[in-house]
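Re: that chain you flagged

S.,

Sorry for the slow reply, it's been a week of failed gels. I finally had a moment to sit down with the sequence you sent. For the record, here it is as I used it:
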Amino acid sequence: MRPLAIIFAINASLANAQSVNVPSGQPVEFVEVVRDTRGPQGLTWRFRFVAPEIDRTSGSIGFEEAAVDMDHLCNKFAVPRLPTMGPVPKQIVISMSDAPVDFGAPAPEITQFFEAYRVEDDSCIWEGI
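Prediction finished late last night. Pasting the structure tokens below so you have them in one place:
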């Protein structure tokens, strides 16, 4: 398969993803992966999810539980979707928001959690943000 075809195949599989199971059992939906914005470590892929239960006023999931879910999303959702050839991201950022929000848009009314990871031996290593 040609590199460009692989990229299109990755995009198609990401676009078709919907609900994702996480350890807390909260409902989580994959929104998108942002691959065109450089991070502090170089090439960074940002996997974005909506998780309504993290809402700071009405949600039932706090940061500690969400952090476990984000570790799981990095290892079980993001890593399997990384390219096996071509540029590989230096960093993965997993983000959760309680409602959809445009990437980079200020939204103080939306609860958002972020975690950064590097990948070593097909495993996510938490880097903290």
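What I noticed first: The chain has one domain: 3-126.

Talk soon,
D.
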